[in-house]
Amino acid sequence: MHTNRLTFRPYTNEDFSFFASLWADPDVVQFIGKGITRSEEEVRKTFDEWLLPGYRDGRGLFLIEHRESLVPIGHAGIVQQSIDGKKEFEIGYWLAKEFWGNGYATEAAIHFKNYAVHELGITRLICLIQRNNKKSISVASRLGMTLQKEATFNTIPVDVYSWEESQK
């Protein structure tokens, strides 16, 4: 899978150090969960028990590589979440800090919105965004998402932005 500037592929064991580098950067994880970095041991557990086995039915978080250089810059994809007891499909996206501000998160999110609709048959998508995460709110807005409600996700207050395909 790819866009003009980005390539998307499943993570492999060889990508662990990049995944760990995202979790080690306080700026990157500022709005992820409780906003705290994780130890290599904690990241290894997430990588082995959640990320790698998470590629089901075309879903999961895919490594984003810059298409020309093949340098890893982040990850994005469709993951299933449970909000207020209801299963939802979320578009998730993270970028390494040095790649912020280039439109890559929006480009990846638009790709996965289209992928979810056209390849996976998903007609409703959400983004779970912490209130002060202005950059992610901007990306969700570019996807045509609007603020639906406030919720709690894993004990963290979040805003649920949603998009639903129009009924024809």
Which key terms come to mind for this protein?
single chain, 168 residues, alpha+beta, Aminopeptidase, 4-stranded antiparallel beta sheet, 3-stranded antiparallel beta sheet, 4 helices, 34% strand
If you had to describe this structure to a student in words, what would you say it looks like?
- The chain is of the alpha+beta class and 168 residues long.
- The chain has one domain: Aminopeptidase (3-Layer(aba) Sandwich).
- The protein has helices spanning 16-24, 40-51, 104-118, 134-142; strands at 6-10, 60-66, 72-83, 86-95, 124-129, 146-153, 156-164.
- α1 (16-24) crosses α2 and α3 crosses α4 (134-142).
Number of helices: 4
How many β-strand stretches? 7
Largest sheet: 4 strands, antiparallel
Task: Tell me what portion of residues adopts beta-strand conformation.
Answer: 25-35%
In CATH terms, what is the architecture? 3-Layer(aba) Sandwich
> At the third CATH level, what is the topology name?
Aminopeptidase
Write the layout of secondary structure elements.
Layout: E1 6-10, H1 16-24, H2 40-51, E2 60-66, E3 72-83, E4 86-95, H3 104-118, E5 124-129, H4 134-142, E6 146-153, E7 156-164
Helix pairs in contact: 1-2, 3-4
Summarize the structure.
Helix content is 27%, strand content 34%.
